[in-house]
Amino acid sequence: TKPLAGIKNTASERTFIAVKPDGVQRGLVGKIVSRFEERGYKLVAIKAVVPSRALAEEHYADLRARPFFRGLVEYMTNGKAPVVAMVWEGKDVVRQGRAMIGATNPLESSPGSIRGQYCVSVGRNIIHGSDSFESATKEIQLWFGKPGEVIDWEPANWVWTMAEN
Ligand code: IDP
Ligand code: MG
């Protein structure tokens, strides 16, 4: 069967996208889901979850030494709203997902990107997306590692959306 993160550089490539608690609190889940759907990507996993401290710390392990790390973990885990965690599949979805999301600091994000359209604070930038196929592999395993949490399915129009020619 297919690896959890699909196969890099094919139409089965997958990425981990999460609406952070501020995005959920602000009612932006639907708009964010729509942007990925409308682009032609396939939703293969979704859940609302208040992550444990351990999960949030592992998710952001590469930032452990940064001054904002404590606050970041607190904001992700305090339960004032859940995280809406998702896995999206399709051609170049890791790189395209990052481009659709925009720069980390929303003040540097292009206006048409998700962050550029919906937020202004780096500490409340509403959405996460894996920064590489390797990160996607780690993050999908971390958030959706139980058997059956990621669903293989084929939209009726998949071949029309993902055709190579
Ligand atoms: P990314 O989310 O665009 O991949 P990273 O550098 O991986 O950006 O940082 C992860 C998250 O940490 C950011 O999305 C943001 O929520 C938070 N963060 C990054 N830099 C800062 C900062 O300077 N102050 C507060 N929070 C920050
Ligand atoms: Mg990152």
Describe the structure.
This protein has 165 residues and is an alpha+beta fold. It is 38% helix and 15% strand. It contains eight helices and four strands; from the N terminus they run E-H-H-E-H-H-E-H-H-E-H-H. It has a four-stranded antiparallel sheet with strand order 2-3-1-4. The longest helix is centred in the last third of the chain and has 12 residues, at 133-144. The two termini are 26 Å apart. The mean pLDDT is 98. Inosine-5'-diphosphate binds at residues 63, 68, 72, 104, 122-123, 125, 128, 131.
Structure keywords:
single chain; 165 residues; alpha+beta; four-stranded antiparallel β-sheet; 8 helices; 4 strands; 38% helix; globular; binds inosine-5'-diphosphate; binds magnesium ion
Q: How are the secondary structure elements laid out?
A:
Layout: E1 14-19, H1 21-25, H2 29-39, E2 42-49, H3 53-59, H4 69-77, E3 83-89, H5 93-101, H6 114-118, E4 127-129, H7 133-144, H8 158-162
Antiparallel strand pairs: 1-3, 1-4, 2-3
Inosine-5'-diphosphate is lined by residues 63, 68, 72, 104, 122-123, 125, 128, 131.
